[in-house]
Amino acid sequence: MRVIACATLAPALFGCLTVVAADAPERKLVTPPKLQVSLGYRWFRADHHFVGDVEQKYREREHSQTINSINLYDVGIAYNFTSRFRMTVTLPLEVMGRSQVVRNSGGTILDRFTTETAGLRDLRLTIDEWLRAPDPQLGWNAQIGFGVVMPTGNDAAKDVFETYDNASGRLVARQQPVDTSIQPGSGGWGLLLKLTGFAQISDHSRSYLEASYTITPRGTNGVLTNLPNPYEAVISIADSYLARLGVEYRPPAAHGMNFSLGARLEGVPVRDLVGTSEGFRRPGYIVSAEPSVSVPLGRWSLALSVPVAVYRNRLQSVADQEQTAATGIYQHGDVIYPNFSIICGISKRW
Q1: Which of 53, 56, 55, 57 is nearest to 314 (CA)?
Q2: SS3 164
Q3: pLDDT score, position 162
Q4: Domains of the chain, residue spans
Q5: What DSSP letter does each residue of 21-83 carry, written as one string?
Q6: How confident is the model over 293-311, as a mean pLDDT?
Q7: Domain 2-97+119-155+183-349 is of which CATH architecture?
Q8: Integer Cα distance of 135 and 310 in angstroms
């Protein structure tokens, strides 16, 4: 069992990352159990500001960095109709917080406050099929998948912000929608495309590939951002993607334990494949080195991976480009990325 993040990086950063259990065929199991229930969890702390691929280290020096604390949970129920065909329903949940500073009109930092969200994210239903019937003697196999992402999460969750009132010179409390990076929902339907595959290298090792892309036809969800850039007035519903490539190794005396090391790419494109790309989004991508381990315990499986960032890039959004064209002043927003994340999962088969 491998735990992956599928359809990740939300309009801001990892705002709707989902964690599901995805199994390549077991080497000793040709006919899989009918039912599998899994629980996935992902944690990270994003507090490193990037414009392009340049880290804005002055934010940490002046203690003005924004800090996202992200806890994502996925409860998955998979049913195997045949050895090749499977359907999975994933119930995603979240507990997220965003700490940021408030400044006066002169730019002086006055205070730091936190906004929080918790609850249901966007539900997913996927179907997957192996191109070849699972067989421990196969040198390779591939699985294609399609799914729908349903807008079940709240895309306009609100909390109390501290803002500076110029007239009174005081801090005031104001309730408004939280930043898109911690919104539970996107506000739009999505089409999820998946590809999984492996190729045997030796008796105890094989290469693996996992990729997914979420298409979101709707342009914006109408939720106000309260940002000064008029082209970023509402939240954009952005596509997202994930790719993983690496090598797995199962030592002869490890009793089924798997170790793997690979590269991981996840991001949000500047422009969507379908529909418009206006509104507020933080496009970009993060490349990570991802060591992982999985442990079979009878019909139970445990897995752990720790993606460590090696390259991060915040791209110029459509709204940035529109404001640059309108004002003649180059605009390129920032994003916050983590140094690493922790992904773990547990599943049971019947």
Answers
A1: 53
A2: strand
A3: 96
A4: 2-97+119-155+183-349
A5: EE-PPPTT-SS--SEEEEEEEEEEEEEEEEEBTEE-THHHHTT---EEEEEEEEEEEEEESSS
A6: 96
A7: Beta Barrel (2.40)
A8: 36
| Tokens of residue 199, six digits | 């190729």
Query: 60 phi and psi, to 5 degrees?
Result: -70, -35
Nearest CA among 285, 275, 211 for reference residue 237? 275
- Report, as an integer, the average pLDDT of 239-263: 93
Q: 346: closest CA among 5, 79, 76?
A: 76
CB-CB contact of 101 with 71 (8 Å): no
Sort 17 into a burial class: Cβ within 10 Å, 0-12 / 13-18 / 19+. buried
Q: Rounded to whole angstroms, how far apart are CA atoms 120 and 105?
A: 37
pLDDT score for 27:
45
Distance CA 154, CA 1 (A): 31
Region label for 162, one of left (φ > 0), alpha (ψ between -120 and 50) or beta (otherwise): beta
In 3-state terms, what secondary structure has residue 272? Answer: coil
How far apart (Å, rounded) are the C-alpha atoms in residues 350 and 33?
5
Q: Which pLDDT belongs to residue 30?
A: 52
Q: Determine the 3-state secondary structure of 89 from DSSP.
A: strand
